[in-house]
Design a protein that fits this description.
About 45% of the residues lie in helices and about 10% in strands. It has about 400 residues and is of the alpha+beta class. The chain is globular and about 80 Å long. Bound molecules: iron/sulfur cluster.
Length: about 400
């Protein structure tokens, strides 16, 4: 993946399409990087390799040599390779489907996609594009497992779709674009969405182009909300976000809150916890850098006792006459760790019938959450009787 970033990137589109002022504000903030980003880069290298191998773009010898080389990387795990293989097979499956109606269909990987016709200097990198007459397909590989990303109406995917369309439309008769997100650590199945070329172009011209012009010029509106602000680089210093999060009061004359009040407060404060975390972290960084923040200082946090060296403990205890075996307890590795070390496939084959998934405890979620509503068992029984 190239390291350069567009001001109006596809990955940030969900934000700058709504909060058009965010792009220029973010531009003033330092770039940050994380262990997850480095892990994602390594995972994409494996995915590209597996994609090329399973679609016959490289030989088995090339594939194995490169896998061996990449496996020496700092972030390599068995799970990373296994996920890449599943992605490669998925790309193959999609290519085979395309070839049923278009024998010339082919796959390209890690392709720069230019959508600057609608977004100033807009480009991104498409993980896999299946070029074909009829339905053009783009596949995005997401190695993260923090939260599931859906393909439906996903602006990042639609911008990639525009870039892919731009790349092929003089040579291929494309009628629709199928966008799929393959997120192997969270699901066996890809999330996908198909859009007609005419709807895609209409969105590009009526929604994207006007918002992109505003965003490029740093004009328009700030649009603070949990979704837009969550990963915004300006999240700690943005006044619009602060104003929105501190203006959640609601007119009420009662001494106690009604259930409606409570629900409304929770709705208005959706971004509050994340924002406070962002503020805490930003102020901590400033204090660490020697700046003064009125009303705040750094102190030593709570710490727990620990041994200076485990070897030293064993040596001293055995010298004192205690058997070494008495100092250890046998502990099984966690399921996640076993999956990471041996790969999901191996674990499913060997331990599949020993893995159980208890029901999760009831958790509060927004009414438009996609998960089905949880109804306690006694209420289910009552509902059954009521319906008789
Ligand atoms: S923090 Fe929120 S409101 Fe402020 S610029 Fe970023 S996305 Fe927009």
């Amino acid at each position: 993946m190239p390291n350069e970033h567009a001001l109006l990137s596809a990955s940030g589109a969900a934000r700058w399409l709504k909060c058009t002022k965010s792009a220029r504000l973010e531009e003033q903030m330092p770039e940050t990087t994380s262990i997850y980003a480095a892990e994602g880069t390594a995972a994409h290298e494996f995915a590209e390799l597996a994609g090329k191998y399973f679609t016959d773009a490289i030989s088995e010898t090339e594939y194995e040599a490169k896998v061996e080389e990449l496996s020496k990387g700092e972030y390599y795990t068995g799970e990373m390779l296994e996920c890449a293989v599943r992605y490669g097979k998925y790309a193959r499956e999609r290519l085979d489907t395309a070839r049923k109606t278009c024998p010339d269909a082919y796959a390209v990987f890690e392709k720069r996609l230019d959508f600057s016709q609608w977004v100033p200097s807009g480009f991104g990198t498409g993980d896999c594009i299946i070029v074909s007459d009829g339905t053009l397909e783009i596949v995005d590989y997401k190695y993260g497992k923090g939260y599931r990303v859906e393909a439906e109406n996903n602006p990042q995917m639609k911008l990639y779709a525009l870039g892919a369309l731009n790349m092929v439309w003089t040579l291929y008769q494309v009628e629709s674009v199928r966008m799929s997100i393959f997120q192997p650590r969270l699901s066996q199945n890809a999330s996908f969405h198909e859009i007609s070329v005419s709807d895609l172009i209409d969105w590009a011209e009526t929604v994207v182009a006007p918002a992109a012009t505003l965003a490029w010029n740093g004009s328009g509106e700030f649009c603070p909300c949990a979704d837009t602000c969550k990963f915004c680089r300006a999240g700690a210093v943005c006044r619009a976000r602060a104003t929105s999060n501190t203006a959640i009061s609601r007119a009420t004359t009662e001494d106690t809150l009604t259930l409606e009040d409570m629900g409304e407060y929770l709705k208005r404060a959706e971004d509050l916890e994340t924002w406070l975390g962002t503020l805490r972290s930003a102020v901590t960084q400033e204090l660490l850098a020697g700046k003064t923040v009125k009303g705040w200082k750094l102190v030593r946090g709570k710490s727990t006792r620990k041994f200076r060296s485990e070897d030293e403990v064993v040596e001293k205890m055995t010298k004192a006459g205690y058997a070494e075996a008495m100092l250890y307890e046998r502990k099984l590795l966690t399921l996640t760790r076993l999956e990471s070390d041996f790969g999901k496939k191996t674990l499913a084959e060997v331990l599949g019938d020993t893995i159980v998934k208890p029901e999760g405890s009831p958790t509060l979620a927004s009414a438009n959450d996609k998960r089905p509503e949880y109804v306690p068992e006694d209420r289910l029984v009552n509902q059954l009787f009521d319906n008789k």
